[in-house]
Amino acid sequence: MRIQSYKHDGKIHRVWSETTILKGTDHVVIGGNNRTLVTESDGRKWVTREPAIVYFHKDFWFNVICMFRDDGVYYYCNLSSPYACDDEAIKYIDYDLDIKVYPDGKYHLLDEDEYKVHRSKMNYPESIDEILKHQVDELQQWIEHKKGPFAPDFIKVWHHRFNNEH
Questions:
Q1: How many of the other CB atoms lie within 10 Å of CB of 11?
Q2: Contact between residue 30 and residue 23 where contact means Cβ atoms under 8 Å apart
Q3: CA-derived radius of gyration, the chain
Q4: Half-sphere exposure of 31 (CA within 13 A, CB side)
Q5: What is the pLDDT of residues 7-30, one digit of tens each?
Q6: What was the pLDDT predicted at 152?
Q7: Which of 14, 35, 49, 119 is catalytic?
Q8: pLDDT of residue 165
């Protein structure tokens, strides 16, 4: 399955060519990929360097990429619309803000300047701004309380399942 990220103005932002769906319900999609071709909006292409588990939820305005590196698990969290899925791909709108979580549990909010520029340029409505502020807080709570994809058991189970399918 492909993953397609868009910007608020409807333009394609980034495409991951292939992700193996490990679990799909009405509310959650969990997938895995490794050495996957990624195409940027400007046509630039690159390949992911490490195995990753991706987590999407219908009720939250973020998705989480768990990357397995030699020194531990890193998380890259995109503040985004809830995902939509069709025959073509898993799709979401990327709202610029990201949180990077390190193996020691420390985390940083990234790209606030980019968010401000795009919010003005693409006229994000006030309602989206409010949702995203709330979702940053929600995501930080998940990180601090090791909830959802940040739970140690989540990583063990889904990394093991992905490895067994490859």
A1: 9
A2: yes
A3: 15
A4: 21
A5: 999 999 999 999 999 999 999 999
A6: 92
A7: 14
A8: 81
Q: Are 149 and 28 in contact (CB under 8 A)?
A: no
Candidates 151, 150, 116, 121; CA nearest to 133 is 116
14 labelled catalytic:
yes
Q: Please say whether the dihedral angle defined by the alpha carbons of residues 74, 24, 57 and 46, taken in this order, is positive or negative.
A: positive
159 within 8 A of 54, measured Cβ to Cβ: no
User: What is the amino acid identity at position 48?
Assistant: T
User: How far, in Å, CA of 8 to CA of 137, rounded?
Assistant: 21
List phi, psi (to 5°) of 126.
-55, -35
Q: What is the pLDDT of residue 71?
A: 96
What are 84's two structure tokens?
């939509």
> pLDDT tens, 112-161?
999 999 999 999 999 999 999 999 999 999 999 999 999 999 999 999 99
Contact 80, 65 (CB under 8 A): no
154 dihedral zone (left: phi>0; alpha: psi -120 to 50; beta)? alpha
Taking the CB of residue 120, how many other CB atoms lie within 10 A of it? 9
Indicate the residue type of 43. G
Residue 151 DSSP SS3: coil
